[in-house]
């Protein structure tokens, strides 16, 4: 094959520096160690401070560095391994024993347009929405909204009136349906304002979005949209030992 136009474009200088810095983080620094200031780093690598800042920002987005006001730039701990494949098991509904998610809130109203299409309901049709969170090592790493149409769960008893109680009721009612399987997709996205608030990130920060469709009787019974912190999480979909990260 001939050389493509893209292959002739030189790699940006900040990206070359990012690669060098990443190797230095692996060989010369420890988790939590404070990096030298920008002036010292720029002098060491022979680059302009603007180029250095771009490289540091990229490494921060990748979760390799953490910047804290009053402390400086420190080496971040390794990403938290999150087992997506066995959150509630591949053959059951969300909320089953062993599920790592915690139901917090309940709401009723129209689903986002893309979710409504997947559920097969009208754009203005009210659906149940269950907000759940996931914590690993004391840190909230993901938030999820589970959308359930009224065809799957016709009504939700008020119970004690709390949102968490109604959310748990929706999950229990789902378990009355015959489970027909699930499928998942993963994509890189940007944190919306509400997700950013829950995950302690800035709006627009990179996140991993896992969309799961739950099936019953040949149709879609529920859809969940889970948002994971891309800077601290690495997702595993294996029921066995996860494959180690081979490159960064």
UniProtKB/TrEMBL annotation:
Gene3D superfamilies given in the database record: Chorismate lyase-like, Winged helix-like DNA-binding domain superfamily/Winged helix DNA-binding domain
Record's keyword terms, sorted: DNA-binding, Transcription, Transcription regulation
SMART domains associated with the record: HTH_GNTR, UTRA
GO terms of biological process kind: negative regulation of DNA-templated transcription
Record-linked Pfam families: GntR (PF00392), UTRA (PF07702)
InterPro entries: Bact_HTH_transcr_reg, Chorismate_lyase_/UTRA_dom_sf, Tscrpt_reg_HTH_GntR, UTRA, WH-like_DNA-bd_sf, WH_DNA-bd_sf
Domain HTH gntR-type: 11-78
CDD domains named among the record's database cross-references: WHTH_GntR
One of the record's GO molecular function terms: DNA-binding transcription factor activity
Superkingdom of source: Bacteria
Transcription regulation recorded as keyword: yes
SUPFAM superfamilies registered for this protein in UniProt: Chorismate lyase-like, Winged helix' DNA-binding domain
Presence of the UniProt keyword DNA-binding in the record: yes
Protein name as it appears in the record: DNA-binding transcriptional regulator, GntR family
Organism lineage: Bacteria, Bacillati, Actinomycetota, Actinomycetes, Kitasatosporales
